[in-house]
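Entry 14. Two folds queued back to back today. First construct below, sequence then structure tokens.
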Amino acid sequence: MEMNNSLIRAGQSRAAGPRHSILDLAPLELECLSVLWPMGEGTVRDIHRVLAASRPRAYTTVMTIMDRLEQKGIVARRKVGKAFRYQARLSAEEARLKAVEKIVEGFFDGSPAALAAHLSSLGGIAPEFRVPAPAAVDAPAAPVAELQTQNLDETLL
């Protein structure tokens, strides 16, 4: 019986209020929020429909995620007919700011200047996240045979 009480207490303390950071959200929770933000407010059915376009998920999964977000204080819900309508308690911009603040606190000792210096040293974006620049339109493309010959010549030298 004591074990059950400790499990109940642990569960209660975890769901007792909003999390401290948007970074603490699970990926699917953040996906649901990303769908909800442009809508302003929506039902589980609305959110499920949008999510299903990219990756099918069970309706009940989305319903559970939205219920968890409400328990955490991330979204508010109100009953409309038989359904709940959900609305985010913070905007996407506020979420981004909180996420950046968490990164600054956790990785850069609270110094935004240190984050800026880090990003500057990377050219703004880490190499693994950079998108290659498109080829210049004015630059003539070398024929494949010419490139192969050039590579062969360089190998022989």
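Second construct, same run, same settings:
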Amino acid sequence: MNDNDHDTTLIPDNKDTPPLADELQQIADHERGRRTTAPRVIQSAGRTQAFAAGGEPGKMRAGDADRDRVVERLNIAYSEGRLSKDEYDGRLASALSARTYADLDQLVADLPAARETVVTQVAKTNGLAIASLACGLAQFMLGPLATIPAIVFGHVARHQIKRTGEQGAGLALAGLILGWATMILGIALIIVVVVVGLATSAGMQGAML
């Protein structure tokens, strides 16, 4: 074993740490060329080996990132009025000088866990729903040419919205209503024209007789 395996600048001697776990931790940190700063959730191979060898979480050495997280929690607690100025100053000094996870844990043991920021993503509006409404309104200028697209786009948009959770169900419904209303009105108008034409033709034939 070379001299680097006993480099105490990486992990100072701790009598409470099992020798094998301490040695494994030194080897893992030496391979990285720096001191481990992983949080309590064990992510590095060296720390995983240390736990397998019987290391205790509270006695593991804390890194700068761990101390920074505790300082952040103290700042939040102080801003919320959970700590007095003296309590905050004392705990802040202790956090900056803490050596193990146990030292850090006792500083925030009586504080609520940090709340996660929930980011709510606003669902986008379905493009076909917009197109359906646009075609429904365009019927007033383009006539029946926009009727079929309004109906088709509206039905497809409603199916997509049910599957994806997008917004625009109201737009698609409005496009469908305009499209079907125009379609029904057009069919009714055709029927009326046909009936009137047949009646007129029958009247003319009767007059000729």
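Quick look at the second one. Confidence is low (pLDDT under 50) at residues 1-18, 31-54. The radius of gyration is 38 Å.
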